[in-house]
Write a structure and sequence with these properties.
Number of helices of chain A: 15
Low-confidence stretches of chain B: none
Distance between the termini of chain A: 34 Å
Low-confidence stretches of chain A: none
Structural class of chain B: alpha+beta
Distance between the termini of chain B: 25 Å
Number of domains of chain A: 1
Number of strands of chain A: 13
Shape of chain A: globular
Order of helices and strands of chain B: HHEE
Helix content of chain A: 25-40%
Mean pLDDT of chain A: 97
Oligomer: heterotrimer
Radius of gyration of chain A: 20 Å
Chains: A alpha/beta, B alpha+beta, C alpha+beta
Largest sheet of chain A: 11 strands, mixed
CATH superfamily of chain A: Amidase signature (AS) domain
Number of strands of chain B: 2
Strand order of the largest sheet of chain A: 1-3-2-6-8-7-12-13-11-9-10
Order of helices and strands of chain A: HEEHEEEHEHEEHHEHEHHHHEHHHEEH
Radius of gyration of chain B: 23 Å
CATH class of chain A: Alpha Beta
Helix content of chain B: 25-40%
Strand order of the largest sheet of chain B: 1-2
Chain lengths: ~450, ~90, ~475
């Protein structure tokens, strides 16, 4: 069976794609020769519909490749297709989309996690050389990686170019990668990292040999375990499995100690306010004029815009637009938008301080294992948001992180989250690989 | 509140949506209020995680070769068609 | 004071490329949507990149207006929905503008400048089947979208409509001298005017193009607001649109429901430090400003201040024209006199700018030379200048074609001789000492030669020919 046929089979069974390539085209040779790369649907691929999981971009064909996609092509990769996601990244279970809701490969009654759900599913079940380009704003790479038992790397903010990424929140979005192993994910990371003139927020730091880091022993690595990440709200079973992983690191010669990130509990509110404020401006451009969903041109522009947007956005998108608009309105701006930005400084300070004494942090990626769809249906929006408590802080601070499979609880995969300092991808990959190997 | 903000954001909501969102958003905003506990006296807001600065582009004209109208359904004589003002 | 007026002036800055992308800013001969890219069209996934030159131009404008420069600038998103907005937010500067607290002197009064900042222009709307309020739909051209603008906001210091126009003219000359603004290109300067009368509500008139239209719009508004107030009705606080054809303003939307722009810092851009070394470099390469030029013209060419001001305030073209003429001709005062008193008058009368007229330093100097050579009289020159201002044709050729050259002395003598022989009675009167007779004879000669002789020269010849009659003794000297 060809790779494309396998991809269709995966899609048929797990509903992981919004679009499968019509043909696999690869040019030249490089580090990704023979590899099929799937791309999260909010990362533009020229010639393939890029919907970001939303009806408002139904059928939208980007006129350019995202920089990270172009880099993959240059290294000989073939683009496999666009993986499904929560609309614009708004979600933790990949259920907020009019397109496919992917199924967890371990248990089809359970969520794959989100928002990069499709990417994690394909990564878990692909039986051909495959790597996934994914994206995280508040934990959208780590969560599905943890729920599906694969490796998900979220690099330092600015490590990868956001040119071609359909924005959720510009100061929080990062393009990252998934693979079956730490080494695999590290390979893709080294390909997609690097500066780009088209993105003013990229970092110009040199790119380490991340794959080589995956082979280094954990001995001497200073590992901090933040106490705030093991408190109530985290499932006992998950906690135990992750502790097991930490112990195994210690057995390998890592220096493990407890640390504290006191502002952790405030990071959820701070994250959501900033993310929604930025998102509400990013989504203003979708109004049925230049691309995406169109309606017959009738009425005043207020009427036409409202008609298109109301038809094109899902519930969660509407809620976030409203909340985000509110948070930056005159009279509320100081209490919400600006306050959240100041709290963000506090969260960043937490990390900077702790990294003076440790190289990496280790904690559970998610407070639970993948929940069942019927459980999710009972949740209120605020409860969806609460699921992100362990991933939002590092995402808010823009530090790099990797979720690596660490064991199982209740028959479902559990991810261990390794977080490093800015541009500390090398250390974190080293630690993650050590957990993987143990 | 929801109606006013939704209008500003050009979202026309049904009565059902208005009611449901009003409820849900109230709960969420209440939760956000926990930020009031944080002492941020004299703390600068962080617009980016890492302070980046001075990224500028040289003033040179270049041409993007493409069809800007290709993705639009509403066009006429090389222009985009847009809805009327009032 | 007649009214309280504040202006928000949007100036299109002269750069090769747009503010946030590399698209050309050239609008002349551009097909609609020809100079666009995913960035200025607000395509999903696109991100802005700041144009260095636009920032430098902004700094020049701020310095020329005596403003305090911010140590670093950030961009903001100003959110509002409109068909001409590619992203339904405009990237501008709200929290941290480029500069604040400056002034521009107009007629001895200082009009304070509240702030100067950079922002991107929206697209151009073509209203189909009506105007802004009545069109059936719109056509949108994004060539203009993303062009860099400097927004200059004044305090409400302007007291009447004439002062508003003077302010704008002076600002325009200043910006032109800075090299950041092209007054000859269409639509490069747009004004939003805020006007209230006798402490009444403030009305905003949006998007007026051109100085004359601003004066017209303000005049209309002042009259309108006055008449409403006289009837005892409160003026509604609102936004109005100016129709250049009818010269009137009409209501657009109520300012009561002012748009909440929901400003956030632009998260796709980073802060730009205006380092002292960089600012110094920019200031060092700043072209001569109008006030400096006026001073220099006075000192360098020895002309009077009034003339220097007229020349400089007529625009950069005129200043350069003047100096080139001086270089070619040498007598700076004479150039100034003829330029200010006669040429400019003709151009203004015909409604022509220097550029439109075809007048050039070479031919203007030619005119002055013709006077010096005695080929034409000054009187002739003053007449000739009117044709010359319109055609720009070589004055020498005009003189030839129209036969305006002063007659040679021999020829003139012949005519005088004819007149003398034809008017024996007058000659007798003249010799008899009657003053009026000589004027009669001069008049007769002039009748025949018209502009081709100087009356004084004719008089001299007559005296020479007929001899002094005593009365004219002094003249004969």
């Amino acid at each position: 069976m060809s790779v494309l046929e396998r991809a269709h089979r995966i899609n048929h069974r797990y509903r992981a794609f919004n679009h499968v390539a019509e043909a696999l085209e690869a040019e030249g040779g490089g580090r990704l020769t023979g590899v099929a790369v799937s791309v999260k649907d909010n990362v533009c691929v020229k010639g393939m519909p890029s919907t970001a999981g939303s009806k408002v971009l139904e059928g939208y064909m980007p006129p350019f490749d995202a920089t990270v996609v172009a880099k993959c092509r240059l290294e000989g990769a073939a683009i496999l297709g666009k993986t499904t996601q929560d609309e614009f990244g708004f979600g933790t279970f990949n259920v907020n989309t009019p397109y496919s809701v992917p199924l967890n490969p371990r248990d089809p009654e359970r969520s794959s996690g989100g928002s990069s759900g499709g990417a994690a599913v394909v990564t878990a079940v692909a039986d051909f050389p495959h790597l996934a380009i994914a994206e995280s704003t508040g934990g959208s790479i780590s969560c599905p990686a943890s729920f599906c038992g694969v490796v998900g790397i979220t690099p330092t903010y600015g490590r990868t170019s956001r040119w071609g990424l359909i924005d959720y929140a510009n100061s929080l979005d990062k393009i990252g990668c998934m693979g079956k192993t730490v080494r695999d994910a590290a390979l893709l990371l080294s390909v997609i990292s690097g500066p780009d003139v088209y993105d003013s927020t990229v970092l110009h730091a040199p790119i380490e040999d991340y794959v080589a880091q995956a082979g280094k022993p954990a001995e001497g690595l200073r590992v901090g375990v933040p106490r705030e990440y093991f408190g109530e709200g985290v499932d006992q079973g998950v906690s135990d499995v992750v502790w097991g992983g930490v112990k195994r690191l210690e057995d390998q010669g890592a220096d493990v100690r407890e640390v504290s990130l006191p502002f952790t509990r405030y990071s959820l509110s701070s994250y959501y306010i900033i993310a929604m404020a930025e998102a509400s401006t990013n989504l203003a451009k979708y109004c049925g004029l230049r691309y995406g969903l169109h309606l017959p041109l009738e009425g005043s522009f207020d009427e036409y815009f409202s008609a298109v947007r109301s038809a094109g956005f899902g519930d969660e998108a509407k809620r976030r637009i409203i909340l985000g608009t509110y948070a930056r309105m005159a009279g509320y701006r100081d209490a919400y938008y600006l306050k959240a930005l100041r709290v963000r400084t506090r969260v960043i300070e937490d990390f900077r301080r702790v990294y003076r004494d440790v190289d990496v942090l280790a904690a559970p990626t998610m407070p639970v294992v993948a929940p069942r769809f019927d459980e999710i249906a009972e949740l209120e929006p605020i409860q969806h948001y609460m699921m992100d408590i362990l991933t939002v802080a590092p995402n808010l601070a823009g530090v790099p992180m990797v979720s690596v499979p660490c064991g199982e609880s209740d028959g479902m995969p559990v991810g261990l989250h390794v977080m490093a300092d800015y541009l500390g991808e090398g250390d974190m990959i080293r630690a993650a690989a050590a957990v993987e190997a143990s | 509140m929801v109606r006013r903000v939704a209008e500003a954001a050009r979202l026309s909501l049904t009565d059902e949506e208005l009611e449901r969102y009003e409820q849900q958003l109230k709960v969420i905003l209440e939760a956000f209020r926990m930020l009031d506990e944080v002492d941020t006296e004299g703390v600068e807001p962080s617009f980016h995680p890492i302070e980046l600065e001075d990224v500028l582009r040289e003033d040179k004209a270049s041409k993007w070769v493409w069809d800007p109208l290709a993705n639009s359904m509403h066009k006429e004589d090389g222009y985009f068609r847009g809805p009327r003002i009032q | 004071m007649e009214a309280t007026i504040g202006l928000e002036v949007h100036v299109r800055l002269r750069t090769e490329s747009k503010l946030f992308c590399g698209c050309s800013t050239e609008t002349v001969g551009a097909e609609p949507n020809m100079n666009t890219c995913p960035i200025c069209l607000g395509y999903p996934g696109s991100k802005p990149m700041v144009n260095r030159k636009a920032v430098e131009h902004g700094v020049r404008v701020a310095k020329a207006l005596n403003c305090g420069l911010a140590p670093m600038v950030r961009f903001s998103r100003k959110s509002y929905f409109y068909p001409d907005m590619p992203k339904n937010y405009q990237i501008t500067q709200y929290e941290v503008p480029l500069a604040e607290g400056g002034y521009l002197s107009v007629n001895g009064r200082r009009i304070r400048i509240r702030r100067v900042h950079l922002e991107e222009d929206p697209a151009r709307l073509v209203h189909v089947g009506g105007d802004i309020t009545s069109s059936r739909y719109n056509l949108i051209d994004y060539n203009r979208s993303g062009v860099p603008l400097a927004e200059i906001v004044t305090e409400p210091d302007i007291g009447d409509t004439k002062e508003a126009r003077l302010f704008l003219e002076k600002l325009g000359v200043m910006l032109e001298h800075l090299g950041v603004y092209d007054p000859h290109a269409e639509g490069t300067l747009r004004v939003d005017a805020n006007v209230s009368v006798d402490g009444g509500s403030r009305v905003e008139v949006k998007n007026v193009t051109g100085f004359r239209n601003v004066e017209k719009a303000l005049n209309f508004e002042v009259v309108r607001q006055r008449s409403i107030a006289r009837m005892g009705i409160d003026v509604t606080r609102e936004t109005r649109h100016f129709d250049a054809e009818t010269g009137s303003t009409s209501s657009l939307r109520s300012k009561e429901q002012e748009e909440d722009y929901g400003y956030i810092i632009e998260p796709d851009l980073v802060k730009i430090n205006l380092r002292p070394e960089w600012v110094q470099e920019i200031v060092a390469t700043m072209p001569e400003l109008p006030d400096q030029r006026i001073q220099r013209l006075v000192e360098q060419y020895g002309i009077n201040r009034f003339q220097a001001e007229v020349v400089v305030n007529a625009g950069l073209d005129m200043s350069l024209f003047y100096e080139e003429c001086c270089r070619l001709y040498g007598n700076a005062e004479k150039v100034a006199n003829w330029l200010v008193t006669y040429l400019l008058k003709s151009l203004n009368y015909m409604g022509l700018s220097l550029r439109e007229s075809g007048v050039e330093p070479g031919t203007f100097v030619e005119l002055l030379t013709l006077i010096d050579e005695g080929v034409i009289s000054e009187r002739t020159a003053k007449e000739l200048i009117k044709d010359y201002a319109v055609s720009g044709e070589s004055p020498r050729r005009i003189v030839e074609e129209k036969g305006l050259a002063l007659m040679g002395v021999k020829e003139l003598r012949a005519v005088v001789g004819e007149v003398v022989s034809e008017n024996p009675d007058a000659v007798e009167d003249y010799l008899g000492g009657t003053g009026k007779a000589s004027e009669y004879l001069v008049g007769q000669v002039l009748r025949r030669v018209r502009a081709r002789a100087d009356p004084n020269v004719v008089r001299k010849i007559i005296i020479e020919m007929l001899g002094s009659n005593g009365e004219n003794a002094s003249v004969a000297q």
